[in-house]
From TrEMBL:
Source taxon at top rank: Eukaryota
Intervals holding WD repeats: 203-235
Protein name stated in the entry: IFT80 second beta-propeller domain-containing protein
Cellular component, GO annotation: cilium; intraciliary transport particle B
InterPro entries in UniProt: Beta-prop_IFT80_2nd, WD40/YVTN_repeat-like_dom_sf, WD40_repeat_dom_sf, WD40_rpt
Gene3D superfamilies membership: YVTN repeat-like/Quinoprotein amine dehydrogenase
Entry keyword annotation includes Cell cycle: no
Keywords: WD repeat
GO terms (BP aspect): cilium assembly
Organism: Meloidogyne graminicola
Length: 558
């Protein structure tokens, strides 16, 4: 997997379906429409002595979330960028905030109307972020050169002052449910718990200034970059997980993808793509100066950055590889997949789709490919005659695909859809709660059981029958702590089915679908575990203990 990069002063064609709001030191705000390759100027511009420092769109109301997707943005000194996919180019309901060097926060809509000006800080307001857990952007917090971190309402009312450090706070971010926030000042990072009156967690993150940070809402890991030319990973308690080697120049930007599986790091003439553990996929060296901001598209396949020389960096992921037994699928461009036989190293087939590929997954001798408009079901016995299904419009892009032996699961913005490999829809489950999106760790499927963690209440597990969408077994499973990872064994019938999950403390538990008179439904089987992986042909499961030992666990039928 690697990034294909193009630099330009305007948007490139591979930013398909993505609209971008940009502002820079020329005091202009522009909305770029990629379909027509045009820019629409905003009527609101700034005075010559006022410069923008950060830009972010608001979260949407519940109804707006059904048709729109957004991504967060951090600051650029030369090009502030916000990517977004939505049906109407300019809707008055969509609000974005913009911070400036004169200490103010500007709230504007896409029609160019100035909604409100908040006098937030003495000196420059460096960064502001909307509350992730309040649809519609009803509140947020900001940091400035005066060393203060403040929470504001959308109406411009000051709710509280979180911190008064005395040194500039250069970057900040929320966690997934907006109950914690992380901010950095000097060489230290702070994690503040909002619903409990306790002192913030504080630690020295880098040798020198911490320049940027990003908190993944999916895997709950914090990514930081500093003037010591390193980028580092931390857990939600500030404990170190990984540290890079020092590079030649300070790290200027970091950004998690929305699914939490990878992140991007920007520096001077350097862009690196890494997986969630810090391992590097690729490193590119574009001639663009320092990459001051990075922003992922909703499908996590495209990346746009703002550079210190005033150019926009456009990148999309290519050469994604999936392996099932002796079959390897390689996405070589936006619409083409090569199928290779690993035993002979020969390319057997070249598969093409009409639209750009959003997601693909291989397993059980099938390759499922989701594009922006259709879903392709390829059978390894006959690659040339796929089953093609039209996707529902207005439900958003496919964000996740999960496979089992007899059926597969498609996850989009508003629903879960289970289909068999003949293309027949078995059930459609509407999601009533809003919260963090599903990922590979929070949803899994077997032939007779669909298991998912509640998006809002992370200690709750829901069970469904994939054949009809009804509640399976004895219903939901309630745990005492938040659950971070779940899996289910694939062998046997519903009587043999067992659910294995990890909580936030690293403890591993096994749970019954049906109690059948058993005294307990949940039992603890291990500690300090991670990366649960069930075997597809036997009732075995592999896991890592303390990130050092590989364990193979027999799933017992207690």
């Amino acid at each position: 997997m690697r990034l294909k990069i193009k630099l330009s002063n305007t948007l490139s064609s591979h930013s398909e379906g993505i609209n971008v709001i940009s502002t820079s030191n020329d005091h202009l705000i522009k909305l770029w429409i990629t379909e027509k390759m045009e820019s629409l100027p905003f009527s609101t511009n700034f005075k010559d002595k006022i410069f923008p420092t950060s830009l972010q769109m608001s979260n949407y109301s519940s109804k707006e979330l059904l048709n729109k997707q957004t991504i967060n943005i951090s600051k650029l000194s030369s090009s502030n960028i916000k990517q977004e996919r939505y049906s109407n180019i300019r809707s008055g309901n969509e609000i974005f905030l913009l911070t400036t060097s004169d200490g103010k926060i500007y709230l504007l809509n896409l029609n160019g109307k100035l909604e409100r000006i908040i006098d937030a800080h003495y000196g420059a307001t460096i960064m502001a972020r909307w509350n992730n857990n309040e649809p519609g952007g009803s509140g947020g917090f900001a940091s400035g050169e005066d060393g203060c971190v403040k929470i504001w309402s959308r109406n411009g009312m000051l709710r509280s002052v979180i911190a008064q450090i005395g040194k500039p706070v250069y970057s900040l971010d929320w966690n997934g449910d907006s109950t914690k926030l992380v901010y950095c000042s000097g060489d230290e990072c702070y994690i503040k718990q909002l619903n409990i009156q306790i002192s913030p967690i504080k630690w020295k993150a880098h040798t020198g200034l911490v320049t940027c940070l990003c908190w993944s809402s999916v895997n709950d890991q914090i990514l930081t970059g500093g003037e010591d030319c390193r980028y580092r990973l931390w857990n939600s308690q500030g404990r170190p997980l990984w540290s890079s080697i020092p590079y030649n120049f300070p790290i200027s930007s970091v950004s998690w993808s929305h699914n939490g599986t990878m992140f991007a790091v920007g520096s001077y003439n350097l862009l690196r793509l890494c997986d969630r553990s810090g391992w590097s996929y690729s490193m590119e060296r574009p001639n663009c100066g320092s990459i001051l901001c990075l922003s992922w598209s909703p499908d996590c396949l495209q990346l746009i950055g703002g550079c210190s020389n005033g150019q926009l960096l456009h990148a999309h992921i290519i050469e994604k590889r999936l392996i099932w037994e002796q079959i390897e699928a390689i996405q070589i461009n936006r619409r083409t997949i090569n199928i290779r036989d690993l035993t002979s190293e020969i390319i057997r087939e070249r598969l093409e789709t009409k639209d750009r590929i959003i997601r693909m997954e291989i397993g059980f001798n099938f390759l499922i490919v989701a594009t922006s408009k259709q879903c392709y079901i390829f059978n390894s016995k006959n690659w040339n005659n796929p089953i093609v299904i039209d996707l529902n419009e207005g439900s958003g892009l496919i964000s996740l695909i999960r496979l089992c032996e007899k059926c597969f699961l498609l996850v989009d913005l508003i629903s879960l859809q289970v289909l068999n490999y003949e293309g027949k829809i078995l059930c459609n489950i509407k999601m009533l709660s809003f919260g963090e999106p599903f990922n590979e760790q929070t949803i899994t499927i077997a032939n007779d059981l669909l298991v998912l963690r509640d998006r809002a209440q992370h200690s709750l597990i829901h069970l469904f029958d994939p054949q009809n969408g009804r509640v399976a077994g004895d219903g939901e499973i309630q745990h005492q702590s938040n659950i971070v990872e779940i899996c289910v064994n694939q062998c046997g019938g519903i009587v043999d089915r067992r659910i294995v999950f990890l909580d936030i403390n690293g403890d591993c538990f096994i749970a019954l679908v049906n109690r059948y008179g058993a005294p307990e439904r949940i039992q603890k089987i291990g500690s300090l575990l991670s990366c649960l992986t069930p075997n597809n042909s036997t009732n075995l499961m592999a896991a890592l203990q303390d990130n050092q030992k590989l364990l193979v666990i027999i799933i017992l039928f207690f």
